[in-house]
Amino acid sequence: MGKAIIETGWNLDNSYARLPKSLFTSLNPTPVCSPKLIILNYLLATSLGLNVRDLQSKEGVEVLAGNRIPEGALPLAQAYAGHQFGHFTMLGDGRALLLGEQITPLGERVDFQLKGSGKTPYSRGGDGRAALGPMLREYIISEAMHALGIATTRSLAVVTTGESVIRETDQPGAILTRVADSHLRVGTFQYVSEWGTVDELRVLADYTLQRHFPDIDAVESRYLSLLQEVIKRQAMLIAKWQLVGFIHGVMNTDNMAISGETIDYGPCAFMDAYDPATVFSSIDIQGRYAYGNQPHIAEWNLARFAETLLPLLHVNQAQAIELAQNAISDFAELYRCNWLAGMRAKLGIFSEEIQDESLIEDLLSMMKKYRADYTNTFRALTFDMPEDTVLFGTPEFAKWYELWKVRLDRQKELKVSSQQLMRNSNPALIPRNHQVENALESAVKQGDYSVMERLLVVLSSPYEHSPEQADYSILPAPSSRPYRTFCGT
Ligand code: AMP
Ligand code: MG
């Protein structure tokens, strides 16, 4: 394997590779037979300091395919554990490799990871590979999340490998390049807590503090602060998911990032009709990860995180447990504050009144009762243009609407400011399941990427409310079968 040329803009460091050896396994990607670039995120590449032209060159594509190791990379698979649907198990990067951390022109450090790059010691019988459809799906949804203003891992590129992967049918193989603030997971801490030493745990916690929370690095009670900050970030993240109707689908502890980014786009999807019981994932039979359960699951996952930190919180175990419990008990209120603030903004409300919560809840319960589309209902309210739907025709809604208008009149802000707040808080569109499926079908079955490219353009500015976006808000024809997403991608 050769070295990539310097002009590509690589500026890689390898702080993770300097952590205790038990945390990872060093290995190179497994080369693929005939890599081809399918999509490259120009803006992201540029912000990372990478040269777009060089990434598109033969050498650049070889890097994105794992056939060539860029200058400064030390590829490794990260070890982690996790609770999958409540059951604790050893996991790790089974089909991904961290090439290193790119130091961007702004001095930020981001992980550069190949997903689908071949088997690792953590593959557990899997083939280490990924299929084109799911990798493009992650690209579309993660980039849509970013544009919606939600912390997420990013997608830099997808290449096809020229090899097929066997799923239910033969699929074109692909590799996604994923960029993240880090890939530290709740499961990383669980792994060290279960199988490592307290010294290793401290090293991991110190590393996390330095990397994500440098301001609290020097604080005496810094491990408690770490816990509190991670709780805060998750409270904010999950509130944002709820506010746009995003359902992650597989909120196992290994899929919860310490950085507060949305990570591991598997069977995720956006809710259409508002219903807290909405589940898309075919394997989530119990509805553990249903839309309405996400805040509770986040709290449960954070409690698992807190448990791993106990030896660092206090020498006295009872006191450590008390500190952890107090921190966890803050989550519900932190989440509620974030969610309420976001909901007020969605309704154009600037000030805070006690009754706002019931105003919001009343709207949501009507939306549930009349199966109103979540995104389109808020969009219609934003433009004060009730749609021809059951909800808007009911006397119940008319009554609510009057109360809402009176509420807006009570605040000092002008109507235009209120509408601007709503425009900025209610997306014109989300990645609708049927549109994502259409884009993927054209791409994978016909090799036609134009549908996906157009979708990516409209999704890149969801708060623009442009005429081109209107077509993308049209709901699919009612189907007798509920939309289903699948794991095992
Ligand atoms: P996920 O459900 O995507 O979060 O993955 C759970 C675990 O399975 C992680 O450890 C993944 O690395 C691993 N995994 C998923 N797909 C594969 C695959 N095709 N080959 C090897 N490991 C995999
Ligand atoms: Mg995962």
Structural description of this entry:
This protein has 489 residues and is an alpha+beta fold. Among the domains are: 3-51 and 72-180, no CATH class; 186-339, no CATH class. The protein is 43% helix and 13% strand. It has 17 helices and 13 strands. It has helices at residues 42-47, 52-56, 58-65, 132-147, 186-195, 198-212, 222-244, 294-313, 317-329, 331-346, 356-369, 374-382, 395-409, 415-425, 433-446, 450-459, 467-470; strands spanning 12-13, 24-26, 36-40, 76-78, 81-84, 87-90, 96-103, 109-115, 130-131, 154-166, 170-180, 246-247, 269-270. The model is unreliable at 1-6 (pLDDT under 50). The protein binds adenosine monophosphate and magnesium ion. The site of magnesium ion has 3 residues, from loops.
Write the layout of secondary structure elements.
Elements: E1 12-13, E2 24-26, E3 36-40, H1 42-47, H2 52-56, H3 58-65, E4 76-78, E5 81-84, E6 87-90, E7 96-103, E8 109-115, E9 130-131, H4 132-147, E10 154-166, E11 170-180, H5 186-195, H6 198-212, H7 222-244, E12 246-247, E13 269-270, H8 294-313, H9 317-329, H10 331-346, H11 356-369, H12 374-382, H13 395-409, H14 415-425, H15 433-446, H16 450-459, H17 467-470
Antiparallel strand pairs: 1-7, 2-4, 3-10, 5-6, 7-8, 8-11, 9-11, 10-11, 12-13
Helix pairs in contact: 4-15, 4-16, 5-8, 6-8, 7-8, 7-9, 7-10, 8-9, 11-13, 15-16
Bound molecules: adenosine monophosphate and magnesium ion.
